Amino acid sequence: MGVWTLGWGQKGTPQLRDAVTPYGKGGLFPVPQVWGPMAEQDRALEPGWLLSLAGRPYLDSILHKKQRRVFGLLERPALPPALAVPTVTYKLFLVGRSGVGKTALVAWLGGTSTPPAHHETLGIEATTLFWPAKPLASGRPVLFQLHLWDCGDGALRKFEHLLPACKEEADAALFLFSFTDRASFEELPALMDRVLSPGDGDLIRVVVGTKFDLATHAAVTEEDVRTFEGTWGLRVLRAGGTPGAGGARAGLARVTPVLDALVEGLWRRDQVTAGVTRVDMGDTPT
Protein backbone atom coordinates (compact mmCIF):
# COMPACT_ATOMS: atom_id res chain seq x y z
CA MET A 1 0.00 0.00 0.00
CA GLY A 2 1.44 3.35 -1.03
CA VAL A 3 1.89 6.27 1.33
CA TRP A 4 -0.55 9.02 0.42
CA THR A 5 0.60 12.61 0.74
CA LEU A 6 -0.84 15.94 -0.21
CA GLY A 7 0.15 17.76 -3.39
CA TRP A 8 -1.01 21.03 -4.89
CA GLY A 9 -2.67 21.06 -8.28
CA GLN A 10 -3.98 23.88 -10.42
CA LYS A 11 -5.37 26.91 -8.60
CA GLY A 12 -4.20 25.51 -5.26
CA THR A 13 -6.45 22.45 -5.39
CA PRO A 14 -5.09 19.69 -3.13
CA GLN A 15 -4.45 16.36 -4.82
CA LEU A 16 -3.42 13.01 -3.35
CA ARG A 17 -0.31 11.39 -4.75
CA ASP A 18 1.62 8.20 -4.16
CA ALA A 19 4.97 8.30 -2.40
CA VAL A 20 7.69 8.85 -4.96
CA THR A 21 11.44 8.78 -5.39
CA PRO A 22 12.03 12.32 -6.69
CA TYR A 23 15.79 12.28 -6.83
CA GLY A 24 16.44 10.03 -9.81
CA LYS A 25 19.55 7.92 -10.08
CA GLY A 26 21.41 10.13 -7.62
CA GLY A 27 18.89 9.58 -4.83
CA LEU A 28 19.77 7.53 -1.77
CA PHE A 29 16.31 6.81 -0.38
CA PRO A 30 12.69 6.87 -1.55
CA VAL A 31 11.16 9.95 0.07
CA PRO A 32 7.43 10.72 0.34
CA GLN A 33 6.62 14.24 -0.80
CA VAL A 34 4.52 16.65 1.24
CA TRP A 35 4.14 19.11 -1.61
CA GLY A 36 3.05 18.68 -5.20
CA PRO A 37 4.66 19.73 -8.50
CA MET A 38 5.84 23.32 -8.54
CA ALA A 39 7.10 25.39 -11.46
CA GLU A 40 10.88 25.19 -11.45
CA GLN A 41 11.28 28.96 -11.35
CA ASP A 42 9.13 29.09 -8.20
CA ARG A 43 11.22 26.66 -6.17
CA ALA A 44 13.50 28.13 -3.54
CA LEU A 45 15.41 24.98 -2.56
CA GLU A 46 16.37 21.79 -4.34
CA PRO A 47 13.96 19.22 -2.85
CA GLY A 48 15.61 16.25 -1.18
CA TRP A 49 19.12 17.49 -1.96
CA LEU A 50 20.45 16.29 1.41
CA LEU A 51 19.64 12.67 0.53
CA SER A 52 21.28 12.92 -2.90
CA LEU A 53 24.87 11.89 -3.56
CA ALA A 54 25.90 15.56 -3.73
CA GLY A 55 24.58 16.14 -0.24
CA ARG A 56 26.21 13.07 1.27
CA PRO A 57 29.11 14.92 3.02
CA TYR A 58 26.66 17.31 4.63
CA LEU A 59 24.38 14.47 5.65
CA ASP A 60 27.33 12.76 7.32
CA SER A 61 28.04 15.95 9.29
CA ILE A 62 24.72 15.69 11.16
CA LEU A 63 25.06 11.96 11.86
CA HIS A 64 27.02 10.04 14.44
CA LYS A 65 27.34 6.27 14.14
CA LYS A 66 24.56 6.34 11.53
CA GLN A 67 22.19 8.12 13.91
CA ARG A 68 21.22 11.78 14.10
CA ARG A 69 23.65 13.66 16.25
CA VAL A 70 22.39 15.76 19.16
CA PHE A 71 24.15 19.13 19.20
CA GLY A 72 24.78 21.25 22.28
CA LEU A 73 24.17 25.00 22.38
CA LEU A 74 27.72 25.82 21.29
CA GLU A 75 28.18 22.91 18.89
CA ARG A 76 27.64 22.73 15.16
CA PRO A 77 28.34 20.20 12.37
CA ALA A 78 32.01 19.84 11.54
CA LEU A 79 32.78 20.21 7.83
CA PRO A 80 36.11 20.34 5.98
CA PRO A 81 37.18 23.91 5.04
CA ALA A 82 36.47 23.21 1.38
CA LEU A 83 32.83 22.39 2.23
CA ALA A 84 32.24 25.25 4.68
CA VAL A 85 28.84 26.91 4.13
CA PRO A 86 26.96 29.83 5.67
CA THR A 87 24.63 29.18 8.61
CA VAL A 88 21.14 30.67 8.75
CA THR A 89 19.33 30.57 12.09
CA TYR A 90 15.56 30.41 12.57
CA LYS A 91 13.34 30.22 15.64
CA LEU A 92 10.20 28.09 15.40
CA PHE A 93 7.51 28.13 18.09
CA LEU A 94 5.36 24.99 18.51
CA VAL A 95 1.84 25.42 19.84
CA GLY A 96 -1.08 23.02 20.30
CA ARG A 97 -3.36 21.54 22.90
CA SER A 98 -1.94 19.13 25.45
CA GLY A 99 -1.31 15.65 24.08
CA VAL A 100 -1.11 16.45 20.35
CA GLY A 101 2.58 15.52 20.29
CA LYS A 102 4.64 18.72 20.35
CA THR A 103 7.52 17.13 22.27
CA ALA A 104 7.26 13.97 20.20
CA LEU A 105 7.41 16.04 16.99
CA VAL A 106 10.63 17.69 18.12
CA ALA A 107 12.09 14.26 18.89
CA TRP A 108 10.86 12.91 15.53
CA LEU A 109 12.40 15.77 13.56
CA GLY A 110 15.66 15.58 15.49
CA GLY A 111 15.95 11.81 15.34
CA THR A 112 16.05 11.39 19.10
CA SER A 113 14.07 9.01 21.30
CA THR A 114 10.37 9.72 21.57
CA PRO A 115 9.11 9.98 25.17
CA PRO A 116 7.64 6.57 26.20
CA ALA A 117 4.54 8.22 27.68
CA HIS A 118 2.90 11.60 27.44
CA HIS A 119 3.90 14.21 29.97
CA GLU A 120 2.94 17.85 29.98
CA THR A 121 5.83 20.22 29.28
CA LEU A 122 5.97 22.39 32.41
CA GLY A 123 7.59 25.43 30.81
CA ILE A 124 9.63 26.06 27.67
CA GLU A 125 11.96 23.45 26.19
CA ALA A 126 14.28 24.68 23.41
CA THR A 127 15.93 22.19 21.06
CA THR A 128 18.48 22.95 18.35
CA LEU A 129 18.82 20.91 15.19
CA PHE A 130 20.75 21.48 11.97
CA TRP A 131 19.47 20.82 8.47
CA PRO A 132 21.62 21.40 5.35
CA ALA A 133 19.81 22.32 2.12
CA LYS A 134 20.74 23.80 -1.26
CA PRO A 135 19.13 26.97 -2.68
CA LEU A 136 18.49 26.65 -6.40
CA ALA A 137 19.86 30.12 -7.08
CA SER A 138 23.18 29.35 -5.40
CA GLY A 139 26.01 26.95 -6.06
CA ARG A 140 26.59 26.58 -2.33
CA PRO A 141 24.43 24.77 0.23
CA VAL A 142 23.17 26.50 3.37
CA LEU A 143 23.24 25.10 6.88
CA PHE A 144 19.94 25.87 8.58
CA GLN A 145 20.05 26.03 12.36
CA LEU A 146 16.55 25.56 13.74
CA HIS A 147 15.66 26.46 17.31
CA LEU A 148 12.45 24.62 18.19
CA TRP A 149 10.60 26.13 21.15
CA ASP A 150 8.11 23.74 22.77
CA CYS A 151 5.86 25.20 25.45
CA GLY A 152 3.27 23.22 27.38
CA ASP A 153 -0.30 24.33 26.69
CA GLY A 154 -1.15 24.44 30.39
CA ALA A 155 1.86 26.61 31.17
CA LEU A 156 1.09 28.86 28.20
CA ARG A 157 -2.42 29.50 29.52
CA LYS A 158 -1.31 29.95 33.14
CA PHE A 159 1.69 32.25 32.74
CA GLU A 160 1.11 35.30 30.55
CA HIS A 161 4.80 36.03 29.99
CA LEU A 162 5.48 32.72 28.18
CA LEU A 163 3.66 33.50 24.94
CA PRO A 164 5.53 36.80 24.32
CA ALA A 165 8.80 35.02 25.13
CA CYS A 166 8.04 32.27 22.62
CA LYS A 167 7.03 34.72 19.89
CA GLU A 168 9.91 37.14 20.49
CA GLU A 169 12.12 37.11 17.35
CA ALA A 170 10.36 33.96 16.16
CA ASP A 171 10.31 33.24 12.44
CA ALA A 172 7.50 30.69 12.31
CA ALA A 173 4.66 29.35 14.42
CA LEU A 174 3.84 25.65 14.05
CA PHE A 175 0.23 24.91 14.95
CA LEU A 176 -0.17 21.23 15.77
CA PHE A 177 -3.12 18.91 15.75
CA SER A 178 -3.27 15.13 16.00
CA PHE A 179 -4.87 12.98 13.32
CA THR A 180 -6.18 10.83 16.19
CA ASP A 181 -7.75 13.74 18.09
CA ARG A 182 -10.51 15.49 16.17
CA ALA A 183 -11.01 18.15 18.83
CA SER A 184 -7.42 19.33 18.36
CA PHE A 185 -8.13 19.78 14.64
CA GLU A 186 -11.41 21.64 15.14
CA GLU A 187 -9.75 24.00 17.62
CA LEU A 188 -7.09 25.18 15.14
CA PRO A 189 -8.86 28.44 14.13
CA ALA A 190 -9.43 29.40 17.77
CA LEU A 191 -5.85 28.45 18.61
CA MET A 192 -4.43 30.65 15.86
CA ASP A 193 -6.68 33.51 16.95
CA ARG A 194 -5.50 33.16 20.55
CA VAL A 195 -1.81 33.00 19.72
CA LEU A 196 -1.47 35.46 16.85
CA SER A 197 -1.86 39.22 17.00
CA PRO A 198 -1.98 41.94 14.30
CA GLY A 199 1.73 42.57 14.81
CA ASP A 200 2.68 39.01 13.83
CA GLY A 201 2.47 39.59 10.07
CA ASP A 202 6.04 38.38 9.47
CA LEU A 203 5.48 35.17 11.40
CA ILE A 204 5.09 32.24 9.01
CA ARG A 205 2.16 30.01 9.91
CA VAL A 206 2.52 26.27 9.37
CA VAL A 207 0.03 23.58 10.38
CA VAL A 208 1.40 20.14 11.27
CA GLY A 209 -0.72 17.04 11.70
CA THR A 210 0.95 14.53 14.01
CA LYS A 211 0.44 10.76 14.33
CA PHE A 212 -0.28 10.55 10.61
CA ASP A 213 1.03 6.98 10.54
CA LEU A 214 -1.69 5.79 12.96
CA ALA A 215 -4.24 5.48 10.16
CA THR A 216 -6.39 2.91 11.96
CA HIS A 217 -7.04 5.42 14.76
CA ALA A 218 -7.53 8.47 12.51
CA ALA A 219 -10.30 10.86 13.54
CA VAL A 220 -9.44 13.49 10.91
CA THR A 221 -10.03 12.62 7.26
CA GLU A 222 -8.29 13.78 4.09
CA GLU A 223 -11.49 15.60 3.15
CA ASP A 224 -11.31 17.51 6.45
CA VAL A 225 -7.73 18.52 5.69
CA ARG A 226 -8.54 19.58 2.12
CA THR A 227 -11.39 21.75 3.35
CA PHE A 228 -9.18 23.38 5.97
CA GLU A 229 -6.42 24.10 3.47
CA GLY A 230 -8.84 25.57 0.97
CA THR A 231 -10.46 27.78 3.61
CA TRP A 232 -7.32 29.02 5.33
CA GLY A 233 -4.78 28.83 2.50
CA LEU A 234 -2.33 27.06 4.79
CA ARG A 235 -0.24 24.00 4.03
CA VAL A 236 -0.77 21.03 6.30
CA LEU A 237 2.35 18.94 6.81
CA ARG A 238 2.21 15.31 7.97
CA ALA A 239 4.37 13.93 10.76
CA GLY A 240 4.60 10.37 12.02
CA GLY A 241 4.39 9.16 15.56
CA THR A 242 6.45 5.99 15.31
CA PRO A 243 9.29 6.01 17.90
CA GLY A 244 12.70 6.39 16.34
CA ALA A 245 11.27 7.16 12.89
CA GLY A 246 13.81 9.91 12.33
CA GLY A 247 16.89 8.12 13.60
CA ALA A 248 18.83 6.00 11.11
CA ARG A 249 19.57 6.97 7.52
CA ALA A 250 16.46 5.25 6.21
CA GLY A 251 14.39 7.08 8.85
CA LEU A 252 15.65 10.38 7.46
CA ALA A 253 13.48 9.73 4.41
CA ARG A 254 10.44 10.23 6.62
CA VAL A 255 11.47 13.55 8.13
CA THR A 256 13.18 15.04 5.06
CA PRO A 257 9.98 16.31 3.36
CA VAL A 258 8.81 18.07 6.51
CA LEU A 259 12.15 19.71 7.29
CA ASP A 260 12.66 20.64 3.63
CA ALA A 261 9.22 22.26 3.56
CA LEU A 262 9.88 24.22 6.75
CA VAL A 263 13.25 25.64 5.73
CA GLU A 264 12.05 26.35 2.18
CA GLY A 265 9.17 28.46 3.44
CA LEU A 266 11.48 30.43 5.72
CA TRP A 267 14.16 30.84 3.06
CA ARG A 268 11.57 32.01 0.50
CA ARG A 269 10.25 34.61 2.94
CA ASP A 270 13.76 35.98 3.43
CA GLN A 271 14.35 36.10 -0.32
CA VAL A 272 11.09 37.98 -0.86
CA THR A 273 11.94 40.41 1.96
CA ALA A 274 15.36 41.03 0.44
CA GLY A 275 13.81 41.64 -2.98
CA VAL A 276 15.61 38.66 -4.51
CA THR A 277 12.43 36.69 -5.27
CA ARG A 278 9.11 37.97 -6.55
CA VAL A 279 6.22 37.90 -4.13
CA ASP A 280 3.93 35.83 -6.39
CA MET A 281 5.06 32.26 -5.75
CA GLY A 282 2.48 30.53 -7.95
CA ASP A 283 -0.10 28.26 -6.35
CA THR A 284 1.93 27.39 -3.27
CA PRO A 285 0.21 28.54 -0.08
CA THR A 286 2.19 30.37 2.61
Walk me through this protein's architecture:
The protein has 286 residues and is an alpha/beta fold. Helices cover 27% and strands 21% of the residues. It contains 8 helices and 10 strands. The strands form 3 sheets. Strands 6-7-5-8-9-10 form a 6-stranded mixed β-sheet, with helices on both faces. β1 and β2 form a beta hairpin. The two termini are 31 Å apart.
Question: What's the layout of helices and strands?
Answer:
Elements: E1 4-8, E2 14-18, H1 56-61, E3 63-64, E4 67-68, E5 87-95, H2 102-110, E6 124-133, E7 142-151, H3 153-158, H4 162-167, E8 172-178, H5 182-186, H6 188-195, E9 204-210, H7 222-232, E10 236-238, H8 249-273
Parallel strand pairs: 5-7, 5-8, 8-9, 9-10
Antiparallel strand pairs: 1-2, 3-4, 6-7
Spell out the key features of this protein:
286 residues, alpha/beta, six-stranded mixed β-sheet, 10 strands, disordered C terminus
Entry summary:
With 286 residues, the chain is an alpha/beta fold. The protein has helices at 56-61, 102-110, 153-158, 162-167, 182-186, 188-195, 222-232, 249-273; strands spanning 4-8, 14-18, 63-64, 67-68, 87-95, 124-133, 142-151, 172-178, 204-210, 236-238.
Helix fraction?
25-40%
Described by the principal axes of the CA atoms, the overall outline is globular
Number of helical regions: 8
Runs in which pLDDT lies below 50 for 5 or more consecutive residues are: 1-41, 243-247, 280-286
Q: Kindly report the average pLDDT value.
A: 77
**Strand element count:** 10
Beta-strand residue fraction: 15-25%
**Class based on secondary structure composition and strand pairing:** alpha/beta
Compute the CA-based radius of gyration.
18 Å
Q: How is the largest sheet built, in terms of strand order?
A: 6-7-5-8-9-10
Largest sheet entry: 6 strands, mixed
Gap from first CA to last CA: 31 Å
Q: What is the N-to-C succession of helices and strands?
A: EEHEEEHEEHHEHHEHEH
